[in-house]
Design brief:
This is LysR family transcriptional regulator. Keywords: DNA-binding, Transcription, Transcription regulation. Residues 2-59 form the HTH lysR-type domain. The protein contains 10 helices and 11 strands. By secondary structure, the protein is an alpha/beta fold. It has 3 domains: 4-88, Arc Repressor Mutant, subunit A (Orthogonal Bundle), CATH 1.10.10.10; 92-161 and 276-296, Periplasmic binding protein-like II (D-Maltodextrin-Binding Protein, domain 2), CATH 3.40.190.10; 164-269, D-Maltodextrin-Binding Protein, domain 2. The strands form 3 sheets. Strands 3, 4, 5, 6, 9, 10 and 11 form a 7-stranded mixed β-sheet that branches. A two-stranded antiparallel ribbon has the order 1-2. Helix 8 (203-214) links the parallel strand 7 and strand 8. The longest helix is centred in the first third of the chain and has 29 residues, at 60-88.
């Protein structure tokens, strides 16, 4: 195996084309430098330099070998830099799970952008999940962190509240409801309500069902969609109405009108899930970025 120190000696001599100047740069006496170059030539099986009493030039083999030697040393330097960043927690991999209704929020986009800018050497992987399985994936390590609307039923996962997000009514633009400034739950109850599938474990479903029960309003279940975009598409197609987080208004579907609700307590929680007993430096860094982004929202 080639000695990295000898490769550095070779590179320095190749740059200086003078053993005396190279020795000064390396803080080394010239005779030991000459011996190290000779030893490297013996290991390689060819001469690197043509030397006279006045000149030093690279041989053809030396010129051909130079970019490879330089490449090896550059990779070693890069590995040292990355190792330092890994030790400091500013490099590595972070897998973030999220539910579809959160991906449209300003908090989500601003946090991802801020984290990516600050930790450019971190490979951030985003995984869209059903909220019912998100907590389990954080618990077993498939996800490092999760953004959800559903409290996990697992003591291996802890949930930090990021606050509440208002719910708005999404109605077909040709519906009479679209002409109103505000819509009540009682008015919505006469229309099929489009939800996520029951087996999807949606935290948004849970918030909506609790809201209807709290106000004593019957919930008339309609079609289901596995994505927030699918739910909005069903509304546009006249298949019912929906209650969605206010951030969904960014989906500017021509056939859908969004209206605030009369009920002031219509909202959905926003949670960040992390493992209870293991916190990586990168998870803590991501939580710190969320905390910084929150006040600016």
């Amino acid at each position: 195996m080639l000695d990295l120190r000898k490769l550095r000696y070779f590179l320095t001599v190749a740059e200086e084309l003078h053993f005396g100047r190279a020795a000064l740069r390396l803080h080394l006496a010239q005779p030991p430098l000459t011996r190290q170059i000779s030893a490297l030539e013996t290991e390689l099986g060819f001469k690197l330099f043509d030397r006279t009493s006045r000149t030093v030039t690279l041989t053809a083999q030396g010129r051909a070998f130079l970019p490879y030697a330089r490449g090896v040393l550059e990779q070693v330097e890069l590995a040292q830099v990355i190792a330092t960043k890994l030790a400091a927690g500013t490099a590595g991999q972070l897998t973030l799970g999220y539910v579809s209704s959160i991906a449209l929020s300003d908090l989500f986009s601003q946090t991802i952008q801020a984290f990516a800018q600050r930790f450019a050497d971190v490979q951030l992987t985003l995984v869209e999940c059903a909220s019912g399985s998100l907590g389990a994936q954080v618990a077993d390590g498939r996800l490092d962190i999760g953004l959800s609307r559903l409290l996990p039923q697992n003591e291996q996962v802890q949930a930090l509240s990021l606050g509440q997000e208002p719910l708005v009514a999404a109605v077909s633009s040709d519906s009479p409801l679209a002409q109103q400034a505000h819509i009540s739950l009682a008015q919505l109850s006469t229309y099929p309500l489009i939800l996520f599938p029951a087996d999807y474990g949606s935290g948004l479903n849970q918030s909506i069902e609790q809201l209807y029960r709290h106000h004593g309003v019957p919930l008339r279940a309609g079609p289901t969609g596995r994505q927030i975009t699918s739910i909005i598409a069903l509304v546009a197609a006249g298949q019912g109405v929906a209650l969605v987080p206010a951030c969904t208004r960014s989906l500017m579907n021509k056939g859908v009108t969004y209206r605030p609700l009369v009920e002031a307590d219509a909202c959905a929680q926003l949670l960040v899930l992390t493992p209870t007993h293991r916190h990586s430096v990168l998870v803590d860094a991501f939580l710190a970025v969320i905390a910084e982004v929150m006040p600016s929202r």
